[in-house]
Amino acid sequence: MFTFIMITSAILVNVRSQPTLAEAGTQMFFYFAVATIGFLLPCVLILSELGSACPYEGGLYVWVKGAFGEKWGFTAIFLQWIQMTILMVMVLSFIAGTILYVFDYGELESKILILVISLVVYWGATLVNLRGLKASGRISTVCVILGVAIPAITIVVAGCAYLLAGNPVQLDLTLTAQNYIPDLSNPANLAILAAFFLPYFGIEGSAAHIENLKNPSRNYPLALIFVVFFCLFVNLLGSFSIAAVVPQSDISLIAGLMQAFEIFFNTFSLSWIVPILAIMVVIGSIGEVSTWIIAPIRGLFRTAKAGTLPLWFQQSNEHGIPRNFVIFQATLVSMFCIIFALIPGVNSAFWMMVALTTHVYLIAYFIMFLTAIKLRYLRSKHTESEFYIPGGERGLYIMCTFGFGSVLIVGIVGMFFLLLTEFVSTLPSPDVTNTIGIWYPVFLIAGMIVIVAIPLLVHRFKKPEWFAAGGFVDPEDGPAEAS
């Protein structure tokens, strides 16, 4: 269970987003409350119920398949996988840039160095994952402790020491509605609200390993609860510490994470700690990369063995890892890294792809919430489990409604407002807005249709011999098939 908690934490928890969240000032408490109640809490309860009912390898794929059949199970896990494949380039770029920052390399814009570091990190993590889940779990555990827990505790302790020493708080804590409740009619505030939802994306990723968890029907909900409190501790207390020490006008979203920490620790005359913290944050991000390498693939591997994908994708090594799938994914990520690093003017196109795949991920969440409703109906007739969302059907519908609402907020804001506000400064390429213009929403809608169509077409034209030669019979087809 400890290893499972570390794997989930490696996926969900990091300190990279703290400066972004701190820039909201005292209004961060409102944003945190809305994001936690509107998205994180529904996800935890829904995932707990789904995991308790169907504690089988594959996670999202198994649940959606049990509710709506193989086609939509494959579609949901494909959407999760493609989003993480594209987003991995951004995380790798962050790791490479931070390493260059630590060693004070004079040419931070050197794309060749960023490319080399990105490829070394990703292929190194890939080779570790090929050695099996135990090796991957150890990497996740070490990375979470060194790269998330210790930096987070350091920031919170430093913030508490700052306040206890009687230093001025760089926040107006006066209890007024204007201080704590933002004007959501302002598109900029809507964009910030969407940013508070994004750190919680991916919480369902570790469910791919649920079958390896002892007594998953009981321990999976407990593991999620622990990770949620850890995530809130890191995000809320860490962001508040930064906001209390660093004036809001000095929290530069463009400058980046390390510059924010540099200002933070210079206040305590502890500038020497910033490079150490930077290395720790890199370690935490490497753990995130390593964990995401195998998580969606386990669901894709299961659907491949059921005959949805060619035989080449159905092969595994002596450790039970789908080696061909892992190598294919590493090659694809490498290709995206090379394109991003070497082709001039590709930055805008890449960030549009990140936005597109994020919206595609919202579709996967929408399917997951529908799955919870469908499986509750099936379970009430055919199965029992150790966890139900409190409040019966009404509680389930309330949580799903919150989830649907959160997905719509992030989707609409991202499509029509996000790149039209000052929050665009969070993107490394400031010329994105000039490039995108009015075609941005059109690109997102058309791109979402194309990406969703890919798994549907693959499923439609799959060949019978893929299943026959694979010889795989899914032992746990889910409540729909079991009934």
Automatic annotation (TrEMBL):
Gene3D superfamilies: Amino acid/polyamine transporter I
Stretches that traverse the bilayer: 27-47, 81-100, 112-130, 142-164, 184-201, 222-246, 272-295, 325-343, 349-375, 396-418, 438-458
Keyword Membrane among record annotations: yes
MF GO annotations: transmembrane transporter activity
InterPro entries noted in UniProt: AA/rel_permease1 (IPR002293), APC_superfamily (IPR050367)
Membrane topology: Multi-pass membrane protein
The keyword DNA repair appears for this protein: no
Superkingdom in the source lineage: Archaea
Cellular compartments annotated: Cell membrane
Protein name, as recorded: Amino acid permease-associated region
GO cellular component terms attached to this protein's record: plasma membrane
Keywords for the protein's UniProt record, in alphabetical order: Cell membrane, Membrane, Transmembrane, Transmembrane helix, Transport
Originating species: Methanolacinia petrolearia (strain DSM 11571 / OCM 486 / SEBR 4847) (Methanoplanus petrolearius)
